[in-house]
Amino acid sequence: MSLTKRDFLKMSAAGLAVLPQALSAQTTLVTLRASVTDLQLLPEQYEKTTVWGFEGHAPGPEIRIAQGARVTRRIVNDLPAPTSVHWHGIRIENAMDGVAGLTQDAIPPGESFEYDFVAPDAGTYWYHSHNRSFEQVARGLHGALIVEEPDALDIDHEEVLILDDWLIDPETAQIPDTFGAMHDLSHAGRLGNYITTNGRYNLSRDVARHDRLRLRLINAANARVFQLGLDGLDGWIVALDGMPLGQPQPIDGTFLLAPAQRIDLIVDVVAEVGGAGHIVQFDRDESFSQVAFEVRSDGTRARRAAPLALPPNPVPVPNLAEARDIALRMEGGAMGGMRGAMMGGRMSSMRDMMQAGQFWAFNGSVGGMDGSPLASLSRGETVRIKITNDTSFPHAMHLHGMHFHEIAADGSLGALRDTTLLQRGEVRDIAFVADNPGKWLLHCHMLSHAASGMMTWVDVA
Ligand code: C2O
Ligand code: CU
């Protein structure tokens, strides 16, 4: 249970004992300072890398709260540029959504902004800059936001694993200031050359054989879709984008983690003592160990039975029979032809679009936060959006403020997500109850694409 400030005042007035923990949670506004900082990101023989981080770290400090509790953070902007913070995946109050240019003004350098919101759903979430995010997220402005279920799971350890894909010049150890490069905007996005987990290229953990771990995977990369697998670990997917699956899904082969997506796994360490379990990343024909779990001892426990499902979150269930249908056709980019975008769009020619750095379109228009929304929705109505990826690249479409169901091939409600990956040519229907009032972005989380036209919003009133 979380206490509001008013509850707390009432309780102290009545002379009721308040736990020190509850008290500090209510009275301390924790600072999250965004600043420029030097980190040893590359292996030790290289120079440090200048990144933008929170509290001197990239990723920033983990925020961990109980389901239903409040998060209060004062963002102090010590960066040389305006910024804002979005709490990705939280079904949040609109004013706290952190979208510079839509729900608030960017926080100027030297100033601060107070975020204060409740997290209604348990699960794995994250926070990141939402101003020039194609630059600021790539420079390191992100961190984990973990909302715990009321009851502890039967596990031995938990690890939050933030995967990132940095573009770093090995000569200088620095991040090249090539943000907004035309090739990144118009192709697959800003892909990096150096992959880290929690800021390390060789993350390893000591475990015992038969330990059961909960792994919370977060993809903080600008554009890379990670293809992952397990080795020496038996695992189940138990949640996607924070939301529990009805039934844990055993992992057999590889799975994809698109930018901004999260996957919660339960894994059992089955590697022998002296060996290691791995999260393996596949890149074309090669594979790399991304995280190693070194088996130091024979655990005391025998193997356990398959895990149970996590308790569901209180997300309203869409009624597909009454859904309002909306179409969203994604067009543009290199090798895709901008014809559709040019014909109906605000830009009069391909050349004007390119000069404006705009390469993508939704339903024939270059998107953005200005102009009119994709749809004005009445609060409580069920919406079904048919998204068609008519481009030559994959895109990870993210809706703010509300989770949606992917519609399965048989027409039923599939997994609840906040970010859905569409491969080239793919069509996906998503459905949700528009129960959260406000202006909510719907954009590609390949952040260079969002900056060059793949962005729209819905208005719920
Ligand atoms: Cu995680 Cu609009 O973003
Ligand atoms: Cu995209």
Kindly describe this structure:
- With 461 residues, this protein is mainly β.
- The chain folds into three domains: 5-148, Sandwich (Immunoglobulin-like), CATH 2.60.40.420; 157-298, Immunoglobulin-like; 320-460, Immunoglobulin-like.
- Helices cover 9% and strands 43% of the residues.
- It contains seven helices and 30 strands.
- The chain has helices spanning 5-13, 20-27, 133-136, 182-186, 339-344, 350-355, 447-450; strands spanning 30-39, 49-54, 63-66, 70-77, 85-88, 112-118, 123-129, 142-148, 157-166, 194-197, 203-209, 212-219, 226-231, 233-240, 243-250, 255-257, 262-269, 276-283, 286-298, 324-332, 360-362, 375-377, 382-389, 395-399, 404-407, 413-417, 419-422, 427-433, 438-444, 455-460.
- The strands form six sheets. The protein has a six-stranded mixed β-sheet with strand order 10-9-12-17-14-15, with no helix packed on it. Strands 21-20-23-28-25-26 form a six-stranded mixed β-sheet.
- A hairpin with a 2-residue loop joins strand 18 and strand 19 (286-298).
- The chain is globular and about 60 Å long.
- Mean pLDDT is 90; it is low at 1-27.
- It binds CU-O-CU linkage and copper (II) ion (CU).
- Copper (II) ion binds at residues 395, 444, 446, 449, 454.
